[in-house]
Amino acid sequence: MTNKYTYFVANWKMFGDLRTLNSLDKVIKFSKTNKKNKFRIIYCPPSTLIRPLSKRLKKTKIEVGAQNCHHSYDFGANTGQVNSRMLKSVGAKYVILGHSENRQLGEDDKLINLKIKSALKAGLKIIFCIGETLREKRNKKTNQVLAKQIKNGLSSINNKSNIVIAYEPVWSIGSGLIPKSEDLKKSISFIKSKFGKKSLKILYGGSVNGNNVDKLKIITGIDGFLVGGASQDSKKFIDIIKKTIN
Ligand code: PGA
After folding, report:
1. Domain span at residue 120?
2. Helix (H, G, I), strand (E, B) or coil at 174
3. Ramachandran angles phi, psi of 5, nearest 5°
4. Backbone angles phi, psi at 135, to 5 degrees
5. Per the confidence metrics, is the pTM higher than 0.70?
6. 3-state DSSP call for residue 143?
7. How far is the CA of 93 from the centre of ligand 1 (A)?
């Protein structure tokens, strides 16, 4: 870990209702031990929970983010959609964009690029997900895929200071598998080389848990984790944080 803050982003995906928020009391209590700003916790619940969660976290240092947004900055006739301004207005500070579960539903780099631009305009910070599929990895295309996702996803965005990269190999998400340390090191340094800027934050995501985080945290250039499954259980999430920072 190289930076002052280590990021722990909880991606709740399509899980959770109002009652689920009670389980956060443990994390709120734990976050109060963060006297020296060693870590930064960001909860990304389903959009239905952003408002109640941000109210609940008001007096804490825990921040709230969303999991996706529509690409239009303007309000409009888009049934079932939520845009970046709406998310911002209910308390979101971040938004996860380019997640592979949404890429699999048809989101391409061009659409993700429009979403990023709209979210930046609304004043949100972006957690921009990139990563290769298993087939791409087997065909030794990882760097090529990452380069393309970065180039197209961030096309004509000059100021990248509000963008955090989340490297999530698609085959690692929800599978219990993590990359070999050597491979992960290579991917992280490849991503860094695309930016040529030291302050870029890079998170790793994909099956992070209390048993593998020791292996992951020592990889140079990783500034934190995007945690799916294990973030839904406060005890498991705290365990990941403790093992990382200690
Ligand atoms: P996982 O999900 O930790 O359950 O693998 C990570 C993610 O999809 O962001």
Report:
1. 6-245
2. coil
3. -100, 140
4. -60, -45
5. yes
6. helix
7. 20
- CA-nearest residue, atom 1 of ligand 1: 228
Residue of 133, 168, 170, 209 to test ligand 1 pocket, by largest number of atoms within 8 Å of CB: 168
Would 58 be classed as within a structural domain?
yes
End-to-end CA gap in the chain:
11
Integer-rounded Cα Rg, in Å, for the chain is 17
Label residues 40-67 b or e (16+ Cβ within 10 Å = b): bbbbbbbbebbeebbebbeeeebbbbbb
Looking at residue 72, what is its pLDDT?
98
* Amino acid (1-letter code) at residue 158: N
For tokens 């780099």, name the residue.
109
pLDDT tens-digit series, residues 36-83: 888 999 999 999 999 999 999 999 999 999 999 999 999 999 999 999
Evaluate whether 219 touches 204 at the Cβ level (below 8 Å).
yes
Asked, for residue 203, whether it belongs to a domain, the answer is yes
Share the mean pLDDT of the chain. 96
**Residue 83, in any domain of the structure:** yes
In a domain, 123, yes or no: yes
Q: Is the CB of 179 under 6 A from ligand 1?
A: no
Which CATH number goes with the domain that contains 214? 3.20.20.70
Q: Write out pLDDT tens, residues 76-93.
A: 999 999 999 999 999 999
CA 2, CA 198: separation in Å to the nearest integer? Answer: 10
pLDDT digits (tens, 9 = 90+) for 179-232: 999 999 999 999 999 998 667 999 999 999 999 999 999 999 999 999 999 999
* Count of domains forming the chain: 1
Q: Express as a percent the part of the chain with pLDDT over 90.
A: 93
230: tokens are 């294990």
